[in-house]
Q: What sequence folds into this?
């Protein structure tokens, strides 16, 4: 029971991070129907931007307020990652829009290779550790000598995720940008005819997705305290799994899927074998796609004859 | 209404549709429709938009599994009611009969409706293999007759003489149909490059290359100009005349329907409202009402006005 | 009133064909030639180009600032420090700005007459004209290649690098041709092709190093039999097992379409790799399987003994004999792949694959069992992947899960898409370009010269960076690959290439 509770806490934390990345996948898929393979690497880039920002704030400017540092880092990472994602869409995807379906996918794979190797070249291949930023923990309960702890950083992750998701939800539900996005999802040509700036809407979708991935990147950096240039692939695939599990194209689905994947991964590691935790994630992906291709909250696709 | 028992009908049936119903969620697209298509005839299914014509077609050709009903197709000749009941009760999808064989189409997956029961079809929005040439389109259609020895036929892999003979037969058949539709000159052009009318006829020729006993055409005249429409009529009549193939077609174009069909079934809102020869159907008040959008009791007035 | 030059209308504002290239005379009737009021003047072309260059330079600088401008540096075991490289950022920003300025004033200049070619592109016409000669030329060159390498490099031993490179490239040519069946012909997107490569490699590695199998053959056919013959006996087994896995993995995923299929195959590929890592008792985990027996000349070992290849055929022993033999083995395997594919395309099953790519529903209406057709495509492609895997294992004589990452699948898929889906010669060309090019990037040691980047510069680090960049650039440049048109499998009078605009890409 104690172990389960502890894993529940850990799983929800991890799941929040996956959920934030998954939104980027699901939004981009929804609006232009492509799997943005480079999104996992965008997440990794954002963690590096966060790392640089933290180092700059602490070692150069000598700041010590953790909350101020985190807040500034979040904003900086969101802005710069958004810019990176905007540039990627502009350079690698927009010229291919409406052409051959495989071309953007190959372009995205190329972009993913480019990003991870760019970071390797620019920042070096070794793990980049940070001193623990928020080391305090809070003991939730104790029984039989086993402490169930809730780290402050876990609380931060969940609170920040929840807050940003609420803001994001407002953005896509209540603003004209959200309406334009939904219109483009339904029918891009018609939306353009009705005066929606399709290019801008798609660009902003990429930017928003990247900004949320940047939040995930900073949270990841704070949680694990270390980042590596190769860290984009596996969280990327897991977040994609989350998006698929929740029903690709569905925003609440992405968050739900993220939480589920986080929980499954931590519980699997705790009760079965930690070696096969990635196999578990991939297997869920396969099983979901085969038996429930529309996901938990997605709309089923009907074949037209 | 005429007796729906396929075996009791005067004309020898090829397809007997019995109490066919198709529901999509809460929507009833086809509601208890029964009719018989006779061997060697052209049967037309007409009706206003949304009447459920294409749904009936998709059920017959196996693309949809009907919610209820029986679709019996007869090879050779009609089956006796006992044979029909025996196969239905057996749970099998087909059975031998005194006259030949009997297939229950609702129990077959789509590709077996085409390959076993030999029902071929065309589509409302033409579905050609646009990146393949006209000739290749006709050869793909003979896939089944060429793969009787298995998909990875070693004779074919090694290009042995037995295979070359088979290949030649397929080629001859393709050329025959190219000639029939007048596209011999364009054999090596991609199908996607053909004009619309030619694409329609190529799709029909491709369907005919599968040696069907029943050819189902989904709005073959849609989008054709009068000249192309006339060429289509001629092609359909020649198919009925020269080949052992019965035709079932959906059509909006009344001139096509009246000119070439022997038997017309009229659907409205998923139900059958009339069934008979073109003459009978043309004067049926219900049909007139449905086509002209008036109530049934006003139909007589309308009838008098249009002079039918 | 003098009209501004019409050629300054932005190219997007009028259909390119209708842009008049001569100035409208000043006395021309305004009603007949209405012009948009805000047409930029000639002088502003330079102005807007400069603005564009400055903006893109600034953007580049901004993009590179966080990760190039700063570097988190390790200092011993202490915490990370920061080093600054703002100069480098400025250099890159400058390069981009100048490049864009030059391009805006030349190639991308507004109103510049853009050649719009109708019909098949120059590449397609060229490919069509050269097509009959291309394949024999390719194979003749491939056969002559090792001899050329020996001649040009001046001896057996010095040619080793070139023959090795040839083997390496041909392996990818073969993998590309194998995947081409699945992706190019049947239109099924497979991102986990490397799984079959791995199955082939591990099948051979496990069987050839297996003690019980060795003992069994030693008991019946003599000591040393298994070492000498294992490759030749295992090669078909590897292919069959890979095909079997193709069917097993293919069966559940065939109902999926498009990107979903791609993702599931990716996941399968990763699952197989992770199982190879974690199933230590069978595969020795991440440490891999070593001491795989080398290839034999159909039972005759390549060694210096009296029983060896050199002694038996009266040659002086040279380790290059084995390498050259390996080269011809992979050439033969690649040729087999090509020939079988060519035959299959002319058979009903191959036509069904292509028809499936064009329209699955129409296929079903013609009685084609699409499940079976997809499975044969998967299995055939997987079989060739398995052959290539067995060859990989016998060449390197060591297998580990490291060799079968997603990156390999991505590279093979990139070769197929870059080559032009469905075109064998295009795929071969792409493999030579990509793999050969990547190898060439290893040899950039001249960049280490003091006057360039200095001895600390490691050019091999930039290989994958350039590779990724090239993938994006090529896709943007030619989304349908090098050879985009399709050659029909049969013709009545004349073989005409089918333009890529008509050829579908499949949806599954």
A:
């Amino acid at each position: 029971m104690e172990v389960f509770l502890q894993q529940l806490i850990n799983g929800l934390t991890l799941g929040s991070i996956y959920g934030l990345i998954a939104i980027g996948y699901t939004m981009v898929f929804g609006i232009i129907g492509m799997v943005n393979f480079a999104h996992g690497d965008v997440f990794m880039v954002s963690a590096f931007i966060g790392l640089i920002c933290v180092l700059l704030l602490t070692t150069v400017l000598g700041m010590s307020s953790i909350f101020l540092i985190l807040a500034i880092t979040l904003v900086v990472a969101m802005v710069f990652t958004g810019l990176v994602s905007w540039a990627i869409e502009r350079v690698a995807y927009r010229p291919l829009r409406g052409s051959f379906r495989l071309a953007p996918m190959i372009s995205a794979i190329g972009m993913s290779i480019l990003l991870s190797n760019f970071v390797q070249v620019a920042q070096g291949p070794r793990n980049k550790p940070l001193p623990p930023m928020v080391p305090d923990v809070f003991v939730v309960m104790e029984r039989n000598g086993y402490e169930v702890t809730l780290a402050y950083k876990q609380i931060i992750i969940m609170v920040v995720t929840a807050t940003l998701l609420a803001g994001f939800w407002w953005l896509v539900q209540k603003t004209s940008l959200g309406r334009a996005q939904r219109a483009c999802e339904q029918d891009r040509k018609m939306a353009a005819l009705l005066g929606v700036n399709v290019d801008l809407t798609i660009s902003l979708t990429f930017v928003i997705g990247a900004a949320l991935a940047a939040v995930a990147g900073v949270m990841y950096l704070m949680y694990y305290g270390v980042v590596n240039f190769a860290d984009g692939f596996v969280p990327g695939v897991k977040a994609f799994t989350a998006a698929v599990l929740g029903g690709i194209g569905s925003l609440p689905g992405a968050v739900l899927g993220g939480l589920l994947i986080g929980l499954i991964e931590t519980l699997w590691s705790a009760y079965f074998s930690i070696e096969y935790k990635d196999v578990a994630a991939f297997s869920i992906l396969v099983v979901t796609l085969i038996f429930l291709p529309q996901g938990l909250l997605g709309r089923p696709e009907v074949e037209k004859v | 209404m005429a007796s729906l028992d396929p075996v009791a009908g005067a004309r020898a049936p090829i397809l007997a549709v019995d109490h066919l119903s198709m529901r999509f969620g809460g929507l009833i697209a086809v509601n208890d429709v029964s009719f018989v298509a006779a061997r060697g005839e052209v049967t037309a299914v007409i009706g206003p938009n949304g009447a459920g014509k294409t749904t009936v077609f998709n059920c017959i050709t196996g693309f949809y599994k009907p919610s209820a009903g029986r679709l019996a197709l007869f090879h050779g000749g009609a089956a006796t009611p006992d044979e029909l009941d025996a196969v239905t009760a057996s749970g099998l999808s087909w059975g031998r009969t005194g006259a030949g064989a009997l297939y229950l189409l609702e129990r077959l997956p789509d590709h077996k409706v085409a390959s076993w029961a030999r029902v071929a079809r065309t589509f409302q929005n033409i579905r050609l293999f646009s990146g393949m040439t006209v000739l290749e389109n006709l050869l793909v259609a003979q896939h089944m007759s060429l793969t009787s020895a298995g998909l990875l036929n070693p004779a074919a892999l090694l290009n042995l003489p037995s295979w070359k003979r088979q290949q030649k037969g397929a080629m001859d058949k393709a050329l025959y149909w190219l000639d029939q539709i007048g596209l011999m000159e364009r054999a090596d052009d991609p199908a996607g490059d053909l004009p619309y009318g030619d694409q329609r006829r190529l799709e029909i020729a491709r369907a005919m290359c599968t040696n069907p006993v029943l050819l189902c055409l989904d709005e073959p005249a849609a989008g054709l100009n009068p000249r192309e429409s006339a060429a289509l009529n001629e092609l359909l009549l020649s198919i009925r005349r020269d080949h052992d193939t019965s035709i079932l077609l959906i059509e909006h174009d009344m001139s096509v329907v009246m000119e070439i069909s022997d038997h017309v079934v009229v659907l409205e809102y998923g139900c059958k409202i009339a069934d008979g020869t073109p003459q009978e159907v043309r004067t049926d008040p219900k049909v007139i009402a449905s086509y002209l959008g008036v109530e049934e009791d006003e139909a007589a007035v309308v009838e008098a006005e249009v002079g039918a | 009133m003098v009209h501004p030059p019409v050629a300054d209308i932005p190219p997007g504002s009028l259909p390119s064909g209708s842009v008049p290239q001569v100035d409208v005379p000043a006395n021309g009737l305004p009603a007949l030639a209405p012009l948009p009021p805000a047409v930029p003047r000639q002088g502003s072309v330079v102005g807007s180009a400069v603005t564009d260059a400055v903006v893109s330079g600034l953007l580049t600088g901004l993009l590179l600032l966080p990760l190039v401008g700063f570097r988190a540096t390790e200092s011993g075991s202490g915490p990370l420090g920061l080093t600054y490289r703002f100069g480098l950022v400025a250099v890159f920003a400058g390069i981009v700005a100048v490049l864009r300025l030059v391009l805006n004033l030349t190639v991308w200049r507004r109103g510049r007459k853009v050649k719009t070619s109708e019909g098949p592109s120059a590449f397609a016409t060229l490919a069509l004209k050269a097509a009959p000669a291309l394949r024999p030329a390719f194979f003749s060159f491939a056969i002559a290649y090792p001899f050329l390498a020996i001649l040009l490099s001046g001896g057996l031993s010095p040619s080793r690098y070139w023959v090795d490179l040839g083997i390496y490239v041909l392996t990818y040519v073969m993998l590309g041709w194998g995947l081409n069946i699945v992706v190019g012909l049947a239109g099924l997107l497979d991102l986990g092709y490397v799984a079959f490569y791995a199955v082939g490699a591990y099948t051979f590695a496990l069987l050839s190093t297996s003690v019980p199998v060795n003992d069994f053959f030693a008991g019946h056919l003599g000591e040393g039999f298994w070492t000498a013959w294992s490759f030749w006996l295992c090669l078909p087994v590897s292919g069959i097992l890979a095909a079997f896995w193709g069917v097993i993995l293919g069966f559940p995923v065939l109902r999926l379409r498009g990107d979903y299929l791609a993702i599931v195959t990716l996941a399968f590929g990763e699952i197989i790799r992770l199982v190879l890592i974690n199933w230590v008792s069978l595969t020795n985990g991440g440490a891999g399987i070593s001491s795989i027996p080398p290839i034999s000349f159909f039972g005759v070992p390549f060694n210096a003994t009296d029983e060896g290849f050199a002694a038996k055929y009266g040659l002086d022993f040279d380790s290059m004999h084995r390498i050259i033999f390996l080269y011809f083995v992979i050439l033969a395997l690649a040729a087999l792949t090509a020939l079988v594919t060519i035959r299959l395309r002319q058979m009903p099953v191959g036509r069904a694959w292509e028809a499936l790519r064009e329209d699955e529903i129409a296929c079903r209406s013609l009685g084609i069992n699409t499940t079976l057709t997809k499975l044969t495509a998967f299995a055939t492609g997987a079989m060739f992947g398995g052959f290539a895997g067995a060859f990989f294992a016998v060449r390197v004589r060591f297998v580990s899960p490291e060799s079968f990452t997603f990156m390999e699948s991505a590279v093979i898929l990139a070769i197929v898409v870059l080559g032009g889906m469905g075109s064998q010669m295009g795929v071969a060309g792409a493999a030579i370009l990509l793999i050969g090019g990547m190898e060439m990037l290893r040899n950039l040691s001249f960049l280490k010269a003091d006057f360039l980047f200095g001895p600390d510069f490691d050019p091999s680090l930039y290989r994958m960076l350039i590779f990724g960049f090239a993938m994006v650039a090529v896709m943007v440049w030619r989304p349908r690959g090098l050879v985009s048109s399709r050659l029909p499998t049969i013709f009545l009078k004349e073989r005409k290439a089918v333009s890529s605009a008509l050829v579908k890409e499949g949806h599954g």
In short: The mean pLDDT of chain A is 87. The radius of gyration of chain A is 19 Å. Chain A has one domain: 13-230. The first helix of chain A runs from residue 2 to 32.
